[in-house]
Amino acid sequence: MRWLQFSIIYKRRSGGQMNLNDAISQLEHQGSAIISLGKGISMAQARWKPSPEDWSILEVLNHLVDEETLDFRRHLHHIFFTPDEAWPSIDPQAWVIAKKYNLRNLDTTLENLESERGKSIRWLAELKAPNWDSSIQMPWGKLSAGDIMASWLAHDLLHLRQLLELRYHLTFSNSLPYMLEYAGKW
Length: 186
Known about the structure:
single chain; mainly alpha; two-stranded antiparallel sheet
């Protein structure tokens, strides 16, 4: 029911509601949380996958580095400054294997993520009164700068949830034969 209420509110919203300072603050805090979830684990733990189809912590973190540089910041820049040029295409799913994310070094990945998030924050802070309703036409419909910014914030949250689940599974497997029920239901 809550999701239905949310979608009704969302559909009724009309442009210009995004607050740049709030978005920057959220990106800063979410970035810190993401980086924190990548610390305090071994390379073996960072590379561990619950199944062959799932991503490891290291793959999630490297995905986020590429999303920072090749997706959200780049696509926002495109909508604001070069909307008449061709849309820069991406293939995040293919990059996981093609770029060998799971073979990379964890510390270097965390440094890269922190650096690129910092660049994004500085770039966003330089924007002067961005028009969140600026948009381009995509095959599926209009895509606005506000859509990209909101999706960037939500994308972080989706991967925070994914990282939490991976860390929970690591805690479970590293705690055997002891059980986690006393903690509460997951």
